[in-house]
Amino acid sequence: MLVKDIMMRDVVTVSPFATLRDALALMKQHGLKCLVVEQQDPHDAWGLITYTNILKTIVAENGDIDLINVYDVCAKPAIGVGESLDVRHVARLMTDSIVKRVLVLDDNRLVGLVTMDDIVGTVLDLIE
């Protein structure tokens, strides 16, 4: 099975200059636990921001979600894979790197997102 068979294609992005409040509002609006952080230019890396990143920042720094930008908190660069990669290799990469999400890129153009839940769900479907 390939990444393109299980990836989410409708990925919600956020500007690196958005506030944490803006990011949380987008997450709530779309029912998501993470957002892809947009590139600042075509040769820039993509990033990821999660509920966990935001929560750690708020707790650790008594952060004001209206004063802290997404860029200050996000994981950047995010790990990216190609859509024709075998899911087994992505699962190994994710477990070795201790990440729950990877971007799917085509020549540094965002085409999707794969989460550990996507992979586990696919495995469970194959078992049934």
Total strands: 6
Proportion of helical residues: 25-40%
Whole-number average pLDDT?
92
- The multimeric state of the shown protein is single chain
SS strand fraction = 15-25%
Low-confidence stretches: none
Widest beta sheet: strand line-up: 1-2-3
Per the principal axes of the C-alpha atoms, what is the gross shape? globular
SSE string, helices as H and strands as E: HEHEEHEHEEH
Q: What distance lies between the first and last C-alpha atoms, to the nearest angstrom?
A: 16 Å
Radius of gyration: 15 Å
Number of helices: 5
- Main sheet makeup: 3 strands, mixed
Structural class: alpha/beta
Overview of this protein structure:
- With 128 residues, the chain is an alpha/beta fold.
- It is 38% helix and 20% strand.
- The strands form two sheets. A three-stranded mixed β-sheet has the order 1-2-3. A three-stranded mixed β-sheet has the order 4-5-6.
- Helix 2 (20-30) links the parallel strand 1 and strand 2.
What's the SSE blueprint?
Layout: H1 3-6, E1 13-14, H2 20-30, E2 34-37, E3 47-50, H3 51-61, E4 80-81, H4 87-97, E5 101-106, E6 109-115, H5 116-127
